[in-house]
Amino acid sequence: MKYEKQMMLLRKVQEIQFVAIELNLYLDTHPCDQDAINDYNCAVEMLKRYKEQYECEYGPLINFGHGGMSGEPWQWAQGPWPWEL
How far apart, in whole angstroms, are the C-alpha atoms of residue 29 and residue 46? Predict the structure, then answer.
């Protein structure tokens, strides 16, 4: 498959992002759970690494100033869209 590596990395970003969101929601109601705080911090660091790797190899994940800097040519419109993978 042409975009298999890209699709696998995007899937990893989505999985870790899901974990971070779920832990965030849990911590809203259990703010003193130190294990959950540690898990959340670990997930956030992991998510940061995967996002950086994805953006370095395939371009920005999000637009409107929230992603990294764009190179030339304008990277947002380059390559397949996530639904095209």
Answer: 23
